[in-house]
Structure formats: structure tokens, C-alpha cells
Amino acid sequence: MNERKMSWEIRKKLKEIAGEEEGICIKDPGGKINVCLVYPNTYHLGMSNLGFTSIYSFLNSREDVFCERAFSADAFQPGGERAAPLFTVETQRRVGAFDLVGFSVSFENDYLNIIRALAAEKITPLRTERDEGAPLVFCGGFAPHLNPEVLAEICDFLVLGDGEPPLTGLLEILGKKPESKRKFLEAAASIPGVYVPSLYDPLYSSEGAFQGFRGDTKGVQPAVADINRYPAHTTIFTRRTEFGDMFLVEIARGCVKKCFFCGVSHSPHGFRCLDKETIKGLILNGLRYRKRVGLVGSAVLDHPDFLEIARFVLDEGAAVSPASIRADMVDEEVADVLGASGLKTAALAPETGDEARRLSVAKGIRDEQFFEASLLLFSRGIANLKLYFIAGLPGTREDDDVHHTVSFVKKLNHHIRASRKKSSAPMIIVSMGGFVPKGMTPFQFAPFPGVERLRSTYWKLRKMLGPERGVKFESDVPKYSYLQALLSTGDRRISRALSGWDGKTDPLVHFKRAPVNPDYFTMREKTPGEILPWDGVYRGYGKENLWKRYRLSVSP
Ligand code: SF4
Description:
Structural class: alpha/beta
Strand content: 15-25%
Helix content: 25-40%
Bound molecules: iron/sulfur cluster
Strand order of the largest sheet: 2-1-5-6-7-8
């Protein structure tokens, strides 16, 4: 297909999609700051991402801004092919024509789609090679917040933490029409939550170890917004998305637990809850569009008013669906509201079948609590239980992983079947992913377990759990976990290598060819005195304490 025909097809498809949306915002772009917000994955995924859609609505709530959306990994918008152009949903304009192009990223592997999107729009991925006329490229979201350095050679600036306050400051500076990009970035760097990588040059020792920056990053910190001022909820309704049948509202952000592997819990923002009256007001409005309410958050059941909110939804004649269920929070009342909502699949996360290891990584939930929670949920008609496990947690061996997972699943299956009629026995789906070290967590010091080990673990588990009645096993792809580990722990040398990816070569082959060894970042245990890539950016996140907890966990 030639480019003209391809463009026509893409724009036709996007018009159709825009026509089906309720809540889309279309303005006259004239005289306004034009922002294109790109979700570096599919429309189907992006439109259920409240971080992405909330920032879109926040920007459009300002009179001086017109924000449009684009998605970079759709079959109808194939950014993977350099020639395929990227258009916005709202007005089907080319992304490259915008003043600002921002990416909202939750998962590190989507960084690859950023490179594809920029290349598709003929925007040079390496920031130092972009000229004054190129759009300002920025990025925000959970993944770069933990380690901004992997995007530092690509983005002109990054928004760290909650987006609304820093974006407000940035738009004010832009409104004053700074005379150059450089002037804009220098002014932007003083806004809390804005990181301008070009102002800080990395230093390396003669052995190649990262030594921090030339330039003081003391003022760089993630922004914290009042979530009651900027509540995140569905603002555009479409059936073409993962949770298209629901009205989503984020009722809590962060988590009360501090699991050693989890980036959510170690954010400096702590656990924050949306006020129950605000939630109820939003739900009443959302019920005009959908009859199912998705309560979003990593620790939804920890919201002090969870039961009241859930009953409120039921009393309004709708159903409720929590995004996360922690086994130690499931009691008769919680099971009642979930059962009354017709929930068919509940997800719990034991992380490991080894109770002692689970306690040592601060998950703090015993086997018995998982068994009791599962029985309670099944007793209310929930038909499937999805269990999330992590293979290769620091301090474990492959055979222990396999043995403990199989033993946990068999015990649980036995409990369930002993308490149910055979005909109504539910399905247990065992979902296994590889451990990936994340910045600012105790396990930031730990190595990735290795692709071969994960492959072998999954193969053994599939073989051992396969014959088990009512159990299904699924796993991630180990080489993509390795890639995620690299993009989670890399520094600017990985960023530079990423910027040179051609969008087609296997990314692991590409990184292997780069002048820096990817295993240096992924397969090595870090030392307590080592300066990690995100140490250069953030100060005072309690690294000494994280090291102590890591050592205690791997050698108790
Ligand atoms: S309970 Fe879940 S969200 Fe909370 S810290 Fe642990 S893994 Fe993270």
C-alpha cells in the first residue's frame, strides 16, 4: 500500500473510532498550545489507562490547550513500519505537527513503541539531534518515574510523579512564549516534578561505573498532587477498550504494604485515598453511561470506606469490580459484595508458594489466609481464581520455586475440591512472571534471575501442573522480562542504545550489539556503595535502609 492510501485508510478508521466515543474533546487548535498525548501501545489498552485519559482531560480542561490522543501500536496505525504515519484520534492530524508530544508509560517495554512512534513521525529519537523546529518530546507515567534515565537521551524533559501540578507550571512557561527551547527547559527545570536531562551530564569512572552527574540534581523530585483535586476516572466512554463495559474510578493510589519487589509501595507519595463522597458523586455520573463500576487502585480493599462504596454501587442497581483483591482483606462482607456483583474471576497474588519467603519479602499473608479467602470467594459464586506468582525472587533457587508453587497450588485445589461438589469445582489459573528488579525498592540491588532459569522453571511447572484437574498454567515470555529488567535498571548508555533501535531488529540482539553490555545492568548484584542510575536523580530515598532489608531477605 502506498503512503497516501495508507494514510487515508488510517484516518478513516480513526474517524470511525472518534465517532463512537462519548466524552471526546475537539477544539479549534488556533491560538492554543497543541499537545499530543501518545499512549505507546494499542487503543484497546490505552483507553483503560486512567493515568493517560486523566491527563488528557486535565489538559483539555484548560482553555489555552488543545490536547489530542494517538496510539502507537495499533494494526491500523502501525508505527513499527517507519513509513506508516501516526495520526491523532480527534482531528486525524500528524503527531509530528504538534508543539508538544508526550508519552504516558506504565510498562518499560513500551519504550520500544516510543522509538517506533517518533521514527514514524520523522522525529529523531536522540534529543541532541533534534533541532529547534522539532516538537518538545516528554514522558511521564509510572515506569519512568522509577528510573527516568533510560529515557534521558530521548526526552527533552520528564514529568515525575503525579502529572497535573508540573504540567500546570510547564504550560504557564509555554504561555509566555519562551524565545528558545533551551530557555523553556531552563525555566521548566525549577518546577517540582520536572526533570530536564540535558542540564545534568553523567560522569563515569575509568571502569565505566556511573558516578552521578555534573550539575546538581538536588531539586529534582517527584510531584505529589492532591488526588481529591484531580480524581482519576473514565472521561471517554468507548466499547473498544479492555474495560469498555465499566465506569472506572481510582479510589486509592499507592499501597499500605511494602513488598520488597514492588515499585508501587516504595513511592514517596505513600497510600492516598479519594474521599468517599467524591467517589459517590463520580459514580452517580458514571452510571449514566455504564452499569458496572471498576474500582481502580493497587490496594482497593484498604480504602477505609470500601464496603460503603461497594454497597452504594449495588444499591444503585449496578455491579462493582475491584482492580485488586488482597487475600488478608477478604472477609464475609467483602465476599458478599463481590458475589452480589456477579464477579466471575477473582485475582489474588501469593507471589510465591513458599510462605516463609512470602513473609520475608514483606507480603505478610500466610498460606491459610489465601485458602480461606479462596473458599469464601468461591462460596459466593466466583468461578475462577487467578493466582499471580513471581519466579526467581532474590534468594530463591529454581527447584524451590517449582516445588513451592506446585505444593501451594495442589493444597489449594484440594481445599477447594474437598469443600465443593465435583460438578461445581472452579478453575484455578496459575499465572507466573519473572522477577524484574525495580528502582527504589529493596530488590533494586538484586540481579534478574536469567532467561534460561525462567524458561526451565516454566517448563517444569507446566509439566507438573498440567495433569492437575481444574488448574491452568500460563507464564510470561522470559526474554521480554529480561528486556524489562534492562529498561528498568539501565542508565543513559542504555537510553542512547535504545534511541538507535531501528524498530525491526530483535531488541535483545540490538542491545547486544550496543557498545555497552546489557548484562552489566541486569545480571549483577549491585553493591551498597554503587551509584545507581536513579540515585543520580533522586536524593534521600532511604537507600541504606533498602540495602539492609534486601540483605535480610536474601540471607535471613
Ligand atoms: S500488596 Fe501488591 S501493590 Fe502492595 S506493595 Fe505488595 S505487591 Fe505492591
